[in-house]
Amino acid sequence: MIRPATPPIKVASYNIRKCIGTDRQRRPDRILSVLAEIDADIVCLQEADRRTGTRLSAIPFELIAHGSPYRPVPYEIRPGGMGWHGNAILVRRDIEIMSHRALALPTLEPRGAVMAELSIGGQHLRIVGMHLDLSGLWRGKQARAIIAHVEACARPMPTVLMGDLNEWSLAGGCLHDFARHFAFAPTPPSFHARRPVARLDRIMATPDLAVIDAGTHHSALARRASDHLPIWATVGVR
Question: What is the pLDDT averaged over residues 58-86?
Answer without folding.
Answer: 96
